[in-house]
Amino acid sequence: MDTMVNPARPGTTETDLYILRGLLRCADRPMIPAWADDGIRYYACPDTQCDRRLINAEEIEQLIWQRYVHLNADAADIVSRDQRRSALLAVLARITVGSSLVDLDYDWRD
Fold it and tell me: pTM for this one?
């Protein structure tokens, strides 16, 4: 990728644009929220040799939110977009990305 990618600074739990910050992992490494100079948000693996170096943030956030909605339909109806991060943090310990975006391993809290 020729686009410059920069680490994203955290907001508060309510204002953070990266709702998976701290939850998303690539193998045993936490993925780092990042943004490109073209304005696209990503989660980046810190291993520069990784095949999954950059994951489009919007795509993976939608996939994981849809899984949450599938399992928590009643609760999801009352969660606003700004509250999604808090809702996910309450039920998920981590999500590990496999070889593709559809290969996700969810570690749910008890």
Answer: 0.84
